[in-house]
Amino acid sequence: MTATTCANRRRPSPGDVADLVRLPAVLSVPGDVLAGASLAVDGPRLPARTVALAGASCLLYLGGMALNDVADVEEDLDERPHRPIPSGRIDLPTARRIGHGLMVGGVALAALAGRRSLAVALPLAGAVYAYDFGLKHTPAGPAAMAACRSLDVLLGGTVGDTRRAAPAAAALGLHTYALTTVSRHETTGGRPEVVRAAAVGGLAAAALTGRTVTRRGRGRRRWLAAAPLLAHGVLQGRAARHAIETPTPAAAQRLVGTSVLGFVPLQSAVSLARGRGVLGTGLLGLWATAHRLARRRAVT
């Protein structure tokens, strides 16, 4: 059976497209830009172009998710036959158009925010393509995915002093590396030693975020940032323990899903520490919403 065999030329429904791009997971993305911008800019307000960059980040993420399925169609025929392309709900050419269109839209939207933003968006898009179509199944795969997330944070940093966003970019990149390591085994069940290593990496990412909060936070606001970090640690630890004790595909997928959504409390902690309470609280609201949506739509 080939990808062509399973092609279906009917118009995909909104639900089919939502499954293709793993819609709930996109709620983990705008906080990258917001965290980067929060560190890069002083003062109570972020520049208006931050909104355009958050939108660009979302489009690039959704496009990367669609192209991930395009690249993996032959593998998914065996391992994930329920996914939109192998199940015939979306044909391969349509999935390609969706993916490439979202990627182009993301870069174009970033360009509206200025040349500095475009200078980061282009390598970010390149890293997404490199991961999906070349590096995913190589030893460099986790590092390539980590680079995507780190560049996403730096994209937000282009509204101010980009260098100040580097600590958050490193922390979220480390978290990405850890979860990508587990995701490579999610269809067969994560090996306990892999899950343990990823759990250590996730804790290190949270610790690095905490250090950023301590150094760049403002007064008592740093203590507010401890709440999302604690909640993140509890949920991550619980999912990791279950995956170690029950090394099944379902447990590994649950850990990966928890890790994907686990970006949000890290992003929220940075925003809260920088004195942006409304923004940090809003990100926590996104976190809760994403968890609810994840019960109906896949995030991995």
Summarize the structure.
The chain is an all-alpha fold. It has a single domain, classed as UbiA prenyltransferase (Tetracycline Repressor, domain 2, Orthogonal Bundle), CATH 1.10.357.140.
Can you give a write-up of this model?
- With 300 residues, this protein is mostly helical.
- The protein is built from 14 helices and no strands.
- The two termini are 24 Å apart.
- The N terminus is likely disordered.
| Uncertain residue segments | 1-8
H/E element order? HHHHHHHHHHHHHH
Give the C-level CATH assignment. Mainly Alpha
CATH-assigned fold name: Tetracycline Repressor, domain 2
Descriptive tags:
mainly alpha; Tetracycline Repressor, domain 2; 14 helices; disordered N terminus
Architecture blueprint of SSEs:
Blueprint: H1 14-20, H2 30-40, H3 49-71, H4 73-79, H5 92-112, H6 115-135, H7 141-157, H8 166-183, H9 192-216, H10 221-224, H11 226-245, H12 249-261, H13 263-273, H14 277-294
Helix pairs in contact: 2-3, 2-7, 2-8, 2-13, 3-5, 3-6, 5-6, 6-7, 7-8, 8-9, 8-12, 9-11, 9-13, 11-12, 11-13, 13-14
